[in-house]
Amino acid sequence: MKVHSLLHSKKWGLTFHVLPFIAIIILFKLGFHYFGLEFLPLSPLMGALISANVFLIGFLISGVLSDYKESEKLPGELACSLEVLVDESKIILANKNSQVSTDMINHVRLLTGSLIAWFHKQEKTDDLMKKISALNVLFSELEPLTQANFIARLKQEQHNIRRIVTRIHTIRETEFNPAGYAIAEILSVILCIGLVFTKMDPYYESIFFVAFVSFIMIYMVLLIKSLDNPFCYYEEKNLTNLTEDISLKSLYNLQRRLS
Asked: Does residue 91 have a pLDDT over 70?
């Protein structure tokens, strides 16, 4: 049970899934050494190729991390905008005792549940956008009951919700620099194969060198692919989704408060 939890843990899951690849590479290295199939001499060009691949991986991860850091804020901003709609409706309800205020609160409760379902791809983006646009009818009914700047604030929060949903949809559906991924994967595979066929002395130190370099390259390529979409709640954990997804706790907390 403990081993299973480690395999699927956020901290060590990716590491344990990379280790079988490293074990296979080491077995091939041992076999080729035993049968004398190591025909490539150790060349300074090998170090240059490794450095070039590390540079490329660094470029990719810097681009992915910028989107990831932005994504961390988005669910919380959604929850804040939704709660502002509820707060304004409660103020109008307390002052005017209007049914439309209750309708607004109920619609926000429905919209929060739809957002959570949308994150898990249980609701289409078009349907969610229609529910966001349905707020316009409620705003028009609230207009005679409150000041114009209150309605303007509600419209601004609606705009924020629509903007954040569009941004999340773009991050979720767009792969960052696919050509960069392809060349990083090709270089990593070629280098791992090259290390297996390279003759290095002393031999046991070469085993450590091959294992370490292969681990870093494979781990980083899979890490980048995993971080590329931080909204993978709808996918089962696999080699491209073993890291932390963005927390939706703020939306779940809001849903609980509204219930």
From this structure: yes
